[in-house]
Design a protein that fits this description.
Elements lengths: L16 H14 L14 E3 L16 E3 L2 E3 L3 E3 L7 H17 L3 E2 L4 H5 L5 H9 L5 E6 H4 L5 H14 L3 E5 L2 H6 L10 H11 L4 E4 L7 H9 L4 E3 L8 H7 L17 H9 L8 E5 L5 H9 L4 E4 L1 H32 L5 H4 L4 E3 L1
The structure holds flavin mononucleotide.
The site of flavin mononucleotide has 27 residues, from helix 1, strand 7 and helix 13.
Length: 357
């Protein structure tokens, strides 16, 4: 696990980003980058069996809305890639699947597109291939922090225009930046930057982690500055610490951080309780790997779910068709759980009874 091909220098993140993006995708696709001992926590719940569902399977409807747009299933393809040659193919195939199934899709961090117009197509291909579903732009917290000045906000807004995006996701990834060999673990001014963006951005802001989770306390601070869509991106799926540890020239110095994070179920349950005071849209992600996880997350209080690596693995294995097949399986399983819990709609599923296992 010791790599010596690259010096360990913080603050070199503008250097060679396209190859780093490719390395991330390759590691996520080929290596075991899951949590070691931690799970998403959803195994602690099951639907209370409803022997009287008073419902026909044919009348179950998995459709809902997201960003005020109709979608067929409360599931989004999370932001993963863009910014290097092969990302264009991956994004096109993911977008084709999102369009066919009728679900939202987010692109990967658009940081490179800000400085290199030759990379724009690797992102805009998503809008071209998914013209009628919600398409979401993506930028890192480090890029929009208030200490970076007004130009930074302008850059982020240009990315929204470029993609004709229906929302802008800001990913907050302190753990990843801490471990990433070229990372910039400087997060002072991020919350203020998000506050500025909420005011300046013509489309809604979504704030997400990348697999270590958003606690109820952090969610509350986001709500306090006006954020109204939060994606917990909790622990139990892809470990970004793990991916960066695999890239680290001195892995022993960061190995103990592999499993840092709050399990997704814990994030969702805790954040959902904040809705009593402030209505907002909650997205459950981080280790969502099947339709049962989708259904349980909704019943725990999420409005929508999202997943990243399962769709990357599918697209690498069998392109658009494999992603569509996976989505169809998840949808079937969501439908089964809706029937078994007597929930004709996604709104009803949000109030279905769960029991602790
Ligand atoms: C290859 C890969 C690249 C990713 N790149 C980004 C990114 O650029 N921006 C972002 O917000 N999240 C990124 N993520 C994080 C995912 O959006 C997601 O939050 C995380 O992987 C947890 O979900 P999962 O367990 O379903 O993979 C990436 C994930 C993967 C697997």
């Amino acid at each position: 696990m010791h790599h010596s091909r690259r010096p360990y220098i913080h603050g070199m993140s503008a250097h060679n980003i396209p190859s780093r993006k490719q390395e991330h995708v390759n590691l996520a696709a080929q290596q075991n980058v899951g949590f070691v001992a931690k799970t998403n926590g959803l195994e602690r719940y099951e639907f209370e069996y409803n022997a009287l569902p008073e419902l026909d399977l044919a009348d179950v409807n998995t459709a809902t809305t997201f960003l005020d747009m109709p979608i067929e299933l409360p599931l989004m393809i999370s932001g993963m890639t863009g910014g290097y040659a092969d990302a264009e193919r991956i994004n096109a195939q993911l977008a084709d699947a999102a369009q066919v199934v009728g679900i939202p899709i987010c692109v990967g961090s658009m940081r490179q597109a800000i400085t290199d117009a030759s990379l724009h197509a690797t992102y805009t291909v998503v809008r071209e291939h998914a013209p009628s579903v919600p398409v979401i732009a993506n930028i890192g917290a480090a890029q929009i922090k208030r200490t970076n000045g007004r130009q930074a906000l302008g850059d982020a807004l240009r990315m929204v225009d470029l993609l004709q995006a229906d929302a802008l996701t800001v990913h907050i990834n302190a753990l990843q930046e801490l471990i990433q060999p070229e990372g910039e673990p400087s997060f002072a001014g991020v919350l203020n930057g998000i506050a500025d963006l909420v005011v300046a951005c013509p489309v809604p802001i979504i704030v997400k982690e990348v697999g270590a989770g958003i606690s109820p306390a952090v969610a509350q601070r986001l709500l306090d500055v006006g954020v109204r869509i939060i994606d917990v991106a909790g622990a139990g799926g892809t470990s970004w610490a793990g991916i960066e540890i695999l890239r680290h020239p001195d892995a022993t110095s960061v190995q103990h951080l592999w499993d840092v994070g709050i399990p997704t179920a814990e994030c969702v349950q805790g954040c959902a309780s904040l809705m009593q005071h402030t209505p907002f849209t909650l997205i459950a992600s981080g280790g969502i790997t099947n339709g049962t996880h989708v259904a349980l997350s909704i019943a725990l209080g999420a409005h929508c779910t999202a997943a990243a690596r399962p769709f990357l693995l599918a697209v690498m294995e069998g392109g658009t068709e494999a992603v569509i097949a996976l989505l169809n399986t998840w949808e079937l399983h969501v439908r089964q759980w809706m029937f078994l819990s007597g929930s004709p709609t996604i709104d009803a599923l949000r109030t279905a009874h769960l029991r602790k296992t």
